[in-house]
Amino acid sequence: MNPTGEPVVSIRDLRMSYGSKEVLRGINLEIQRGQVIGYIGPNGAGKSTTVKILLGILDGYQGEVKVFGEDISSGSIEYKKRIGYVPETADVYESLTAQEYLTFVGELCGMDHDAADGKAKRLMSLFSIGEGYSARISSFSKGMKQKLLIIASLLHNPDILFFDEPLSGLDANSVMVFKEVLSELSAQGKTIFYSSHIMEVVEKISDRIIILNGGRIMADGTFDELKEQCSEGSLEEIFNQLTGFDQYRDIANEFISVLKE
Ligand SMILES: Nc1ncnc2c1ncn2[C@@H]1O[C@H](COP(=O)(O)OP(=O)(O)OP(=O)(O)O)[C@@H](O)[C@H]1O
């Protein structure tokens, strides 16, 4: 954990370009232990790029990125064992069974095979997909695959979690279980980065909301602070205001008239 109270993630003047296209334009952030961060922004804002840099799977950035107080460019990969990640889209090994996949992931993160096996089986059953434990992932429904990814991200009890649209495909009962798990994890001191386009959920679960637009941070604060700053009621309205999007009716009308042609 992080007994000294220093930030678990610290980012200074982070810049990233793909070719001549600058997609992160000077991000500065300090994230404390136990915070649930709603990390939101329009499509292409740079959210996944930031997360991939933090995960150590994207190089070539400028600026300083520290996780658990250590500069991730130092080459140490130990910190990755303390991180869990649910990507927006994932290539899981479909020909493996859930058991093979989860024990493999657990062992990669330093767990003993039998410990990973026992824990994975119980977590699958708690998520109502226990019957699929020995089945090939290729036979899973979309929601079952998503639950598998969530379990894989949590199995090794990481200290920082990155979730990208984690509720995608989950039924209403599982959503309630997952939200409750999130709030317990945060109470235990886990830090959670939550990226989603579902504003109602982000508004409810986040202690702090960061809005990214065009590679820059447009807002950073609690929901109440953002509300005060924008004089708007819901996070959806705040988001639309801060990302300069107020023509949705005109666009929808034009869309309909094109369909009618
Ligand atoms: N491998 C790549 N090569 C070139 N450009 C890329 C690459 N990956 C991302 N980009 C560009 O970087 C920008 C930021 O992408 P990123 O995936 O970080 O956005 P995002 O905020 O996660 O978007 P979304 O909400 O759609 O998932 C986009 O303009 C995207 O086209």
Automatic annotation (TrEMBL):
Entry GO MF terms: ATP binding; ATP hydrolysis activity
Xref: Gene3D superfamilies: P-loop containing nucleotide triphosphate hydrolases (3.40.50.300)
SMART domains: AAA
A Pfam family it matches: ABC_tran
Keyword DNA damage: no
Limits of the ABC transporter domain: 9-239
UniProt entry keywords in alphabetical sequence: ATP-binding, Nucleotide-binding
CDD domains membership: ABC_DR_subfamily_A
Highest taxon above the source species: Bacteria
TM regions (residue ranges): none
Protein name per its UniProtKB record: ABC transporter ATP-binding protein
Originating organism: Caproicibacter fermentans
Lineage of the species this protein comes from: Bacteria, Bacillati, Bacillota, Clostridia, Eubacteriales
Gene (UniProt): natA_1
